[in-house]
Amino acid sequence: MTPRERVLTVFEHEEPDAVPKWLGASPELLQKAQDELALEDEEALRERIGDDFRRVFPIYVGPELPPLPEGVTSRTPFGIERIGMGYGQPTSHPLADATLAEIHAYPWPDPDWMDVSGIRAEAGRWGGRYAILGGEWAPFWHDAIDLLGMENLYLKMYDEPAVVDAVMQHVMCYYLQVSRRTFDAAADAIDIFFIGNDLGSQNGPLLSPTFFDRFLMPHISRLIDLGHAYGLKVMLHCCGGFKPLIPALIDAGLDGIHAVQPSCTGMDLATLKAEFGDRLVFNGCIDSHHVLIEGTPESVREATRQVLEIMMPGGGFVAGASHDYVLPETLVANLVTMFDAIREFGQYGGAPRA
Fold first, then answer.
1. pLDDT for the residue numbered 87
2. What is the pTM of this model?
3. CA 127 to chain centre
4. Which is nearest to 80 in space by CA: 154, 149, 176?
5. What is the per-residue pLDDT for 353?
6. Could you give the CA distance from residue 315 to residue 277 in angstroms, rounded to a whole number?
7. pLDDT digit string (tens) for 314-340?
8. Pair 121, 111: CB distance under 8 Å
9. What is the CATH number of domain 3-345?
10. Neighbours of 59 (CB within 10 A)
């Protein structure tokens, strides 16, 4: 099978020739791995690892943005500047005390600022070999937290639900329009609509099922319906222990979950596989903290084997780390060992892998 055929077979909950692999890594780790393995570029690393996925993006062509101030690490499409490690934390919450009128008057980004015209060509450069991810990540929950402040957002869900609804509607309008334009331009070159919102903490969901159903699920359903309208599978990145929310996601038609953190409350792999494995693809599951960062190549190999033993039967599984980004403190040897172990132990019926 080609990598694309392998992935699409998994999404049909059938067993392919081998478990597909997913490489999610921080830019810092990608560069460190390229240097230590003496590889020419990121694509060479993905080929060495055996990553079965590739991803395409639109290009920002809007008004020229001011340079990031000193110490600021990133800026969201909604103008929130963040400071600190990785993507950092927001430096302000501009809509924390906003009225509905002020929310509607906020300078929301224009979907026309994202150029989708090159996406088909970008996907085509891999010649149909890999499963292609596309569409906007659409982290509307995180954007609402940035714009309102987390504690304030929770209080407004009780006291001013119309304010929360207005903020999320504006954020989602942008993401839906950019993704729709992406799919109008190149849906037949894309396989999976990949979206992301972290709904869980280490100890459980960040929202009760009641509030999740009221404030977040309608928007997640809109994203799922959009992807399905273009014939795409829809996969949600979600960190934390969010098992109580999974039935609602399945009922809405979600096809896959990434990256599945087994160290979080309620995320026991055997239980997830038994309860949901015939309806939901699980992507990830190999602990990126206690195994990849703290482990040795020997312990990584054994932990990977154990995860595959649980998650492989019946298909519906993509193997990779339990976090969106494998962090730069991870040993390259551990990263390579994990993927080599997936290749070694992830064969179905002894079939040789392409």
1. 73
2. 0.96
3. 24
4. 149
5. 42
6. 8
7. 999 999 999 988 999 999 999 999 999
8. no
9. 3.20.20.210
10. 12
Give the tokens for residue 320: 């990779």
Give pLDDT < 50 ranges for the chain. 351-354
Check residue 354 and give its pLDDT: 42
Cα separations in angstroms, 324 against 116, 206, 259, 329: 24, 18, 6, 15
**Are the C-beta atoms of 24 and 55 separated by less than 8 Å?**
no
In terms of Cα–Cα distance, which of 353, 175, 324, 178 is closest to 238?
Answer: 324
Q: What is the sign of the dihedral through the CA atoms of 87, 52, 341 and 256?
A: positive
Task: Give residue 350's pLDDT.
Answer: 52
Strand partners, 324: none
* Residue listed under structure tokens 């891999």: 126
Which pLDDT tens digit goes with each residue over 39-82? 999 999 999 999 999 999 999 999 999 999 999 999 999 999 99
Confidence (pLDDT) at 4: 98
Query: Residue 16 is which amino acid?
Result: P
At 197, which amino acid appears? N
